[in-house]
Amino acid sequence: MEDNKLKSKVLISLFWKMMESGGVQGVQFVVQIVLARLLLPEDYGNIALVSIFIVLGNVFVQRGFNTALIQKKDTDEVDFSSAFYLSLFTAGSLYLVLFFISPLIADFFQASNLVEILRVLAVMLFFGAVNSIQGAYIAKKMLFRKLFFSSVGAILVSGTLGIVTAYSGWGVWALVIQQLANQILTTIILWFTVKWRPKLLFSKKRVKSLFSYGWKLLVASLIDVLEKDVRSLIIGKFYSPAMLGVYNRGEQFPKLIVNNINGPIQSVMLPALSSQQHNKVKVKNMVRRSITTCSFIVFPSMVGLAVIAEPLTKILLTEKWLPSVPFLVIFSASYALWPIHTANLQAINALGRSDIFLKLEIAKKIIGLIVLLASLPFGVYAIALGSLLSGIISTFVNAYPNNKLLDYNYKEQWKDIMPSLLLSLAVGGAIYNIRIFSMGDLLTIILQIFSEGILYLGLAKLFKMESYKYIVSTGKEFLKNR
Predict the structure, then answer these.
(1) CA angle, 223 then 225 then 228, to 5°
(2) Based on the number of CB atoms within 10 Å of its own CB, is 445 exposed (0-12), middle (13-18) or buried (19 or more)?
């Protein structure tokens, strides 16, 4: 009875989280297409350079406490309020640092306009601090329906502002306005829809308790962001903002699709796994289900995206973005691995082993740094391929601890994902050949997408794949209980 209640709660939470993610990503997809057609690669490159420092700041503001609040069993108002005030203080301190070092950053990249852009965009840190605590409360209580309205409402308004300002010739500032407005509106809407309010409570003891778990995640996130951003720093410094814009554009579509599929599942999985951390058999079953289900959906999505990469770019973004196609293909392969990464890491976090999480990040980043140094002499495309290689190696690193923690070894994990991977590659090869009929880009893409869906689902049903049967049965159960 308890298992059915948990499953029902997880499914309802997953439904709203997927609605929220799908709505946001859908609107953002349209907004980004319009903006990409109106703006130049240089505009996106300048934003990418500034975003490196905003993302680094957000690591200190948002990471650690957010996950610690979700993972802790007996979280109360003192925990939430203490984390809230400390996050705001951290945001204020970091904003002052970024404000005063912005001229140095602009000089380093030889782009004077970065000073004002960074100072304005860094205001996001304050709203990010508030959102991180609100998000932890929502996840803890599994109130993802609230997140749906705030996120979708914010992206609709901010996206419209971005398009209007880009069309009016504001250039890179259209992107600044769009991002800042989105963060501000999300905070405001959540403030009126979520009941939680910070109280005049602060406990050093509670902060230390949360920090004893969260600092390892914070350091791990910092290492992860630095390892990723060093590529952007190198491309922006030694090549050009335009090349950085093309590099990031190639990453955008795969990242958007995988975040839309894998992100909601993992957001719901952490509180669900944390609630069952005393029962490792159940945690293993939930992790295994997460990996197999996500892989079943993500693998064909990424293979299909790689197949249609070139004509899709020409149709949606125009030919000025064609240099991003090789990056799009490489990142499609890289992001296909995300379900394996995130499910294993969420299990480790849910079991309270942030110490292991930190050790994994250090090991992976050492490997990533070695691969990056080896790829540097061969150019930007080699840097992207090196990132893919690091990702493949990292799947083994992330899976290693769960061999002991959950008795879920490499052999079992690859056995779970291999049917979806092999079927996706076979179907991808089949639909790739449709282009030989020379029917025009748009018609070819439509036929390829339609054919992939029919072939993939038809063969999954024919071979009686476990993931297919699970998704169908779960869908029927969910609709029956609605």
Answers:
(1) 110
(2) buried
Q: How far apart are alpha carbons 32 and 464 in whole angstroms?
A: 39
Residue 348 structure tokens: 């480790």
Q: How many C-alpha atoms does 346 have within 13 Å on its Cβ side?
A: 29
CA triplet 301, 334, 327: central angle to 5 degrees? 90
User: How far is residue 11's CA from residue 477's CA, in Å, rounded to a whole number?
Assistant: 10
Helix (H) or strand (E) holding 20: helix 2-38
1 — pLDDT class (breaks 50, 70, 90): very low
> What average pLDDT score do residues 385-404 get?
89
Closest to 139 (Cα-Cα) out of 249, 62, 58: 62
The DSSP output letter for 72 is -
What is the distance between the alpha carbons of residues 253 and 259, in angstroms, rounded to a whole number?
10
Q: H/E element holding 150?
A: helix 144-167
- For 202, phi then psi, to 5°, come to -155, 130
Q: Say which residue, 374 or 270, is predicted with more confidence.
A: 374
| pTM score | 0.71
Residue type, 282: K
Residue 123 sits at φ, ψ, to 5 deg, of -60, -25
Return the minimum-mean-pLDDT range out of 30-44, 252-266, 290-304, 406-420.
252-266
pLDDT for 425 equals 94
Q: Which two tokens stand for residue 423?
A: 């079927």
Q: Which helix (H) or strand (E) holds 381?
A: helix 380-399
Nearest to 7 by CA among 347, 285, 281, 406: 285
Task: Report the pLDDT value the prediction gives residue 264, as an integer from 0 to 100.
Answer: 64
Express each pLDDT in 302-316 by its tens digit: 999 999 999 999 888
Q: What distance in Å separates the CA atoms of residue 101 and residue 170, rounded to the nearest whole number? A: 25
- DSSP secondary structure of 96-129: HHHHHHHHHHHHHHT-TTHHHHHHHHTTHHHHHH
* Close Cβ partners of 481 (under 8 Å, ≥ 6 residues apart): 8
Pair 229, 56: CB distance under 8 Å:
yes
Largest CA distance in the chain: 69
How wide is the angle at C-alpha 348 spanned by C-alphas 347 and 354, nearest 5°? 145
Contact 300, 424 (CB under 8 A): yes
414: nearest Cα among 389, 392, 390, 385: 392
**Residue pair 45/240 in contact by the 8 Å Cβ criterion:** yes
Query: Average pLDDT of 438-453?
Result: 88
Q: How confident is the model at residue 13 (pLDDT cuts 50, 70, 90)?
A: low
